[in-house]
Structure formats: C-alpha cells, structure tokens
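Work Package 3 (structural annotation) set out to generate three-dimensional models for the target panel prioritized at the project kickoff. During this period the team completed the workflow that converts sequence records into discrete structure tokens, so that structures can be stored uniformly alongside our sequence database. As a representative example, we reproduce one entry of 359 residues exactly as it appears in the project archive.
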Amino acid sequence: MELRRLRIQNLRLIEQLELELASGWNLFLGTNGAGKTSLLEAAFLLSHGRSFRVGGQDALVRHGSSGYSVYGELETASSAIERVGLARNGGRLVARLAGESIAAAELMRHTAVLCFEPGSHELISGPSEERRRFLDWGVFHVEHDFLLHWRRYQRALKQRNALLRGDASGADLDVWDQELARAAEPLTMMRRDYFDALRPILAGLLRDLLAELGEPQLAFHPGFEAERPLAEVLAARRARDLARGHTSAGPHRADWSIGFETAPRREHLSRGQEKLCAFACVMAQAHLFAQRAGEYPVVCLDDLASEVDQAHQRMMVATVAASGAQVLATGTEEPAALAALGVSAKRFHVEQGRAAALL
C-alpha cells in the first residue's frame, strides 16, 4: 500500500498543501516547528481517525478555522487507486471513499499507516490503554467481526458499570455478568490469536535490536484470570466491584508485556531501550500486516534520531528499508544512516506549514 498523493487543509500549522509522494522513502526536512510532524499526522489520521500526538481533536484544527480535511490517493498491491478522505467540521467526523460518505471505521479498513515517533516509548512504559489500542488496530485489520464483538462488549460493560453505581439487584447483575462473559470470549480469543502470530516476529526483531538484554519474554494478559471463566471471576469480585462502582476484570483491562532475560520488567529499560522496543513493535505489526494482506502499510518515522544512537539508527533504517514499505520520515537534517546504507529518498523542505520538493 502506498500513499501517492496527500492533500491537507487547515491541519495545525498547514493552511493548504498538496504533495506527490514517491513509492520509497519520502524525507521531510526542516527546523523544529516547521510543520513536519503534521504531514505524518495527516497520513495517520486516514488510518486511525485520531492523531498519534497528545491532545484533543480540537488541537488539530488550524487556528481560526472551523475544521480540517485530509485527502489521499492510495495505490494498493493490485495497482488499484483508492481515493480516501477524512474531515472534521463542527465536531463531526466525515469519512469518504471514492467520493461517497462511509463510516470512519470502514475508511480505516482501507487505509493502513503505522508510525514510530518520539512518544512511542509510551507503548512500553505508558498505561495499558496504549497497548490495547496497538493490539486492537492489528486485530481489526485481520478479523472483520472484531469491531462488532468489541462494541457488544463495550455495551455490556457500560450496562454493568451503571448497575454497579446504582441500586442493582443480584438478579440484574447475574444477567449482565453472563452477557459480559459471552461478549468477552470472542474478543479475548481474537486478541490472543493475533498476539500469538505477532510474538515470533516481534521476538526476532528484539533479538536483533537489543541482543545485549538476552532472550525476549513476551506475554499476553487477557484482563482476568485466564484459568477461570470470566463469569466466575465477575461473581467472585462482585462485592469489590460494587464498592468501587466499576468492573475490575475483563478484556477492558487486557494488556501485554515485553521483558528480557536480563531486564524482566519494563522499569529496567532505559528510555532509548523503550524506544527500540516500540520500534520493534511497529515493524513487527507491519510485517504481520504484510503477511496477511499481501502488502505493507505505509510506515511513518517522526524524528528517527531522537534518543537513539547512530548504530541503532542504522539498524532501524536497514530494517525498514528491507521491508520495501513506503516511508514518510521527518528530521531537522537527513539521517546519516540513509547515506551510509545507500538508501535513496525523495526530499522535501518544510517551512511554516509549506513543503517543497528538493531536486
């Protein structure tokens, strides 16, 4: 999958911009605050419906504007061109495919963009919500019924939590315990199957990038005691849940972890090592997507040099280049690893929200 054309209006610093992108590496160079990261955000929005940066949706809108829009032309492995678009105006999100309005989730099924950026270490050291979101994006692109099951579970969870905070009878809670358990079963199975498929790819990348830490240790945690049925767990925890007013076990508490032979806990990792782990996760997901879909997603690399030494930068560039994926990368200067590895790139100079291709 390649993003051949990208058009952006009123996104952060960018008033209006249209880019023709190369099939290989596209390198956006400029000073800090020039708008480079916003270019990657635009591509990411088409695949996730949100930014990878911290902040609400309103922060994406250019000052003085009522909304933003992003349009892209995607070339798939079959050489078909798909026209995709996403706009936010007045708090309403509108998605389009070939000029027709569609659900945002349907747009995201057509568009696959992954991003490694300075905040990616949060995937390792941050809250479990980040890791669930990462996992669920992958499952969503593999299991067409995933969203249906996820929504069913969320409805049941909302109902049970409302009962826990209200004047609930035991009979009412019994009903929603059973519904929550039924909804949780396929959701947990899909997540576990996806993680099992991701595990060997991720472990191989971690061995290459962090060989000094020993053998990787990867584990999936479903959010409840896996050896017991969830309905049984919910019944055992009912008194605690009533006291706290929320459900303490279930797929909404799922998580996964990365450890190593010499660094079994994530707290043992340095910031740089966390970032290398996060990079491995992004590329493992890209590789698995390619195995299942027959094409790589677009890979975004925002400020690759941040907190990563030259040797590891070369390893990261080599890993991405070997995949053959289309790359959108940013930097204040060209990474030395590109030239060292003989990787060619289409270069753009970015300044005050405008980008111009360099010869």
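Residues 216 and 260 are 4 Å apart (CA to CA).
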